[in-house]
Amino acid sequence: MIIFAPITGRGGAVTVVRLSGHGSLAIVASLAGGLPSPRHATLRPLRWQGRVLDNALITVFPAPASFTGEDSAELSLHGGRAVLAALSSALVALGARPAEPGEFSRRAFMNGKLSLLAAEAMADLIAAETEAQRRMAVEGVDALQAACTGWRESLRQSLATQEALIDFPDEDLPPAVERELLSRITHLRDDMAAALARASAAVRLREGLEFVILGPPNAGKSTLLNALANEDVAIVSEAPGTTRDALGVRLDFAGVPVQLVDTAGLRPSQDAIEAEGVRRAGVRAARADFIIALAAPGQSFAATPPGVEVLRVSTKADLGATPPGQLAVSALHGHGLDTLRATLAGIAARLTDTKSAATLARPRQVACVRETADSLTRALAISEPELRGEELRSAAQALARLVGTIGVEEVLDAVFAGFCIGK
Ligand SMILES: Nc1nc2c(ncn2[C@@H]2O[C@H](COP(=O)(O)OP(=O)(O)OP(=O)(O)O)[C@@H](O)[C@H]2O)c(=O)[nH]1
Ligand SMILES: [Mg+2]
Question: Does the beta carbon of 76 lie inside 6 Å of ligand 1?
């Protein structure tokens, strides 16, 4: 099936439409009145039903030297809705259909042009908003590919040794064979456990962090949010209980994306709407990556949910003495904000530090490696050779799902559905 989609964003001066699949070059030839030589960008008028659609820069990529591995072409058109619409109807009339999200990448994967991990990293690169996300997408994938190759090889050897232990009675093999097998499995399991331990930083970096501002009414939460965002996002007033909805702004703290969330001032309230705001503040705080607790002079810091790290900051430093040794700001006058920004950037960097090692940045990847490691842990607890072999085979299957060599359909649906059209 021939598929097509614009592979550039909307609103630019040029729109590039990619066409891929067996027969796509014949479609290009019929629109362009012949085929330019492979991989040479060539300017040609595209004609359909006797009229010129547009003058397009055409590049054809005969299989297998294309992104998808299929016959493929890229048509650079003048950017504009009408141009794209006219070309699309011509392509549909000639037997092509619009591509589904991720369909080009999926074909590239199927044709061995792109590994599953590389496809995921490419999607992350396109979605990257900050420098640290870009770096992780570009550099993390090689480290992860290398780690996976090592893991698979180690598991393959373990399986082979285990088979030998099953096939030949114990007395024929030196006891060292089994000792080495167990030590290899232990080493592999520990290596995966280390990768899993680093995963939360990678997942956080990929998804972005959430920092929640929490404190009593009138502590200056909304004022601080506006100051850090450099934008008048939240309503500020001297009336306590102004903010009700949790309100987020997306910031870039030294390359790490952070959603900074302002919340309702915490106090018991008879007002149903304010009480709901307070409840929501608690929910957001409980699932935050980090809490910035605020209190103005004379106020005390609110209790925070267990398990979430907190930074206490005294506000309205211009109004009165603040506890010594504690970060203090006056958001109204801009005092202390640079120090606070630097502190928050340091925290964001620490929470997302992947230590430049192989990173499992997606929940899917984490689940596969956890499943593999769990099977290995169970295998280590089993002395019966057949049963241990079973566990090792489950481990191998879970690992194969990570790189996409088995369970292909189900894994691919989940992975590529998250892509956007044109990828
Ligand atoms: N003097 C002084 N006043 C401040 C400062 N920061 C905020 N305020 C004032 O304190 C009042 C409350 O500020 P908000 O930012 O609305 O406080 P809040 O914590 O969001 O309050 P709620 O939304 O009601 O929970 C406003 O009148 C602000 O102008 C500060 O640094 N110094
Ligand atoms: Mg407020």
Answer: no
Contact 96, 3 (CB under 8 A): yes
In testing the pocket of ligand 1, which one of 221, 226, 228, 236 has its CB within 8 Å of the most ligand atoms?
Answer: 236
Range of the domain at 382: 119-206+358-416
User: Residue with the nearest Cα to atom 8 of ligand 1?
Assistant: 220
| Cα(275) to centroid(ligand 2), Å | 14
- Is there a domain that residue 24 lies in? yes
**What's the CATH number where 80 sits?**
3.30.1360.120
* Ligand positioned closest to the Cα atom of 264: 1
Is pTM beyond 0.85 here?
no
Residue 23 domain-assigned (yes or no): yes
Is there a contact between 143 and 359 (Cβ–Cβ < 8 Å)? yes
> What is the β-pairing status of strands 256-262 and 290-295?
unpaired
331 lines ligand 1 (CB under 6 A): yes
**How confident is the model at residue 291, as a pLDDT?**
98
Shared domain for 189 and 221, answered yes or no, is: no
287 occurs within a structural domain: yes
Does the CB atom of residue 222 touch ligand 1 within 6 A? Answer: yes
pLDDT at 408: 52
Calculate how far, in angstroms, residue 297's C-alpha sits from the geometric centre of ligand 1.
12
Per-residue burial over 198-226, b = 16 or more CB atoms within 10 Å of its CB, e = otherwise: bbebbbbbbbbbbbbbbbbbbbbbbbbbb
286 and 340 in a common domain: yes
With contact defined as beta carbons under 8 Å apart, do 18 and 4 qualify?
Answer: yes
d(CA 45, CA 56): 6
Task: Please report the pLDDT score of residue 239 as a whole number.
Answer: 95
Looking at the structure, do residues 200 and 227 belong to the same domain, yes or no?
A: no
Note the pLDDT tens digit of each residue in 61-120. 999 999 999 999 999 999 989 999 999 999 999 999 999 989 999 999 999 998 889 989
Sort strands 72-78 and 14-20 into parallel, antiparallel or unpaired: antiparallel
Say if residue 225 is in the same domain as residue 346.
yes
**Would residue 107 count as lying in a domain?**
no
Task: Report the nearest atom of ligand 1 relative to the CA of 235.
Answer: 16
Q: Which parts of the chain have pLDDT scores under 50?
A: none
As a whole number of angstroms, the distance between CA 22 and CA 24 comes to 6
The pLDDT of residue 411 = 56
- The predicted pLDDT at position 223 comes to 98
**Final residue in a domain of this structure, among 332, 351, 370:** 351
Same domain, 347 and 362: no
> What pLDDT sits at residue 166?
82
Q: How far is the CA of 309 from the centre of ligand 2 (A)?
A: 22
Cα of 274 vs centre of ligand 2, distance in Å, is 12
